[in-house]
Each structure stands twice: as structure tokens, then as C-alpha cells.
Amino acid sequence: MKSYRKELWIKAPHRRQYINITPQVEECLRESGIKEGLLLCNAMHITASVFINDDESGLHHDFEVWLEKLAPEKPYSQYEHNGAEDNADAHLKRQVMGREVVVAVTNGKLDFGPWEQIFYGEFDGMRNKRLLVKIIGE
After folding, report:
1. pLDDT-based confidence at 90, cuts 50/70/90?
2. 49 beta partners
3. At what angle do helices 88-97 and 57-70 cross, to 10 degrees?
4. pTM of the complete model
């Protein structure tokens, strides 16, 4: 069995943003040479997320509105966590959106359903953050 590991770096220009990382993940799969197996992609920061969904701007807007209702950024004073950093809402949003995805690899391709894409969700951006891509298989 082969194993492949690569870290990807992202610096989101906004505090909150959804970035389609499917092309970068597909490039990792090509580099790995693995044709059959599993691919894991996870955020290596506790205020960021990796998830699968549709690449549709209206949906991304809906995520933003929904998450802001669940865990509003302001007032900062509503959260015990806030002190040195005002990012408690980002930690909560990450819990809802998830840490990682696992995708089957079949015939050297990500085995997606219709419209599925991999996204990086940033909830406390404007600094460098890492993603891990780990692929195992043959």
C-alpha cells in the first residue's frame, strides 16, 4: 500500500470565506500516483473547516447567514473564550461545518456524486493556515 502526505497553505483575504480547493486536492491525487484508495483532507487549525458541498454562490451566502445566526461574531463580549483574540464564533462555526472530509479514490479520480466539490471554510482568516491531504491506497 502506498501513502502520500502534503500540506497546502491558504491565506484567506477575508475573516470568513469559502474557497473551492478541489483543483489543489486533485493535483495532490495526481502527484500521489494512487489509483484506488482513500483521500483525507482536513483543516489543521481550529477556526477553519473542510467540507463537501455544491459550488454555488447563493448556497455559500446561505451558509454565512445561517452560521451567523447560530454563532454571531458580535458582540464579542457574549463569549467567555474571547479575550486575547475575538474569535470564539469561529471556533463554534468550525464545529458545525466539520474538520475533514474523506473521499474514495476510484480509477485515479475523486469518487464524487453530482455537484460535489471540496471546500475550505475560513472563519478567522487573513493569516496563513494549513490543510493536510493524506492519501492511502494502490
Report:
1. very high
2. 121
3. 120
4. 0.96
